[in-house]
User: What shape does this take?
Amino acid sequence: MIQWEDVYKVVAAMVPLYVALVLGYGSVKWWHIFTREQCDAINQFVCYFTLPLFTFEFTAHVDPFEMNYLFISADAISKVIIVLVLAFWAKCSSKGSYCWSITSFSLSTLTNSLVVGVPLIKAMYGQVGVDLVVQSSVIQAIVWLTLLLFVLEFRRSSSIDLISTVDAPQAEKDSDLEGNINNINVVMSSSTSTSTRPAFWYLMKIVWLKLAMNPNSYACIVGLTWAFLSNRWHFQMPSIMEGSILIMSRAGTGTAMFSMGLFMALQEKVVSCGVTLTVFGMVLRFIAGPAAMAIGAIAVGLHGDVLRVAIIQAALPQSITSFIYAKEYGLHAEVLSTAVIFGMMVSLPVLIAYYAILEFLH
Assistant: This one.
């Protein structure tokens, strides 16, 4: 049975994150220390230095040859379940929507694995749990965020085609459509088909270019590459290199949470999408995602602490990257913004509840 000392360990791991969050929020909202431009500069510092090095530090110490592939399979199955449900809803329901399916996928599957997950899971299940969370984070960055980018880019490219032909007389549509085809065959060269829908390899080029501009993406890739090489040939990172990375990466969690506080303070209101959509987002984040993960975990035969870690890490707060992408592509950014902010606020009691229930069932 769960003891109060266990709950205290979890609270002790989470409270420092909230302290950094509140300090960031108060420095703008209450004390007016930073201007919006200075907040942007701090966010850039976190985005390009501390968080990528923080990500690299954890990823580089993963042993790819000892990864829990059942755990990774369970994670993949859970996401496939959600994709199939959303695809069925979009196609068969009168309220179904392709755009809302994309947002719902983000809300129910993409988590803040490293910044919140690592200290939380370490307090709950020790280093074994941390290793699983890091593995999940690496797969999310390399596979699922890439898939999300591809779908968002495809949607935007397709929307350009539709906008060019709607709300115009038929004769103008025919003429404009022909002109748009010619023009786009020139914005894309030989990479598009004559129907103006962008070719697969053109979209992939855009997606990989955007990933290359995202420091956290290549931090995962470079870190995983190093992990493969170092574990294959059994050599360690030189101490001078390790020290250079650690001096910045140790600030990763604190500065990321401080930056989140700045972001919260710059919003006009915490709940910017209305109560109904906020509840919708929280249900997907804290109920649908863990439920799908439980199905996937049971399907592949996970049990014990690995099963519990799988479910709890699926209930972590919303990924900040998913909001950044939503804002860039103009797709329900206010919903993702609320999910990130409100999710951080309610995650502590929710995650402790999950921990207590799973330990009690054990």
Q: What stands out?
A: The longest helix spans residues 113-163. The two ends are 8 Å apart (CA to CA). DSSP finds 14 helices and no strands in the chain.
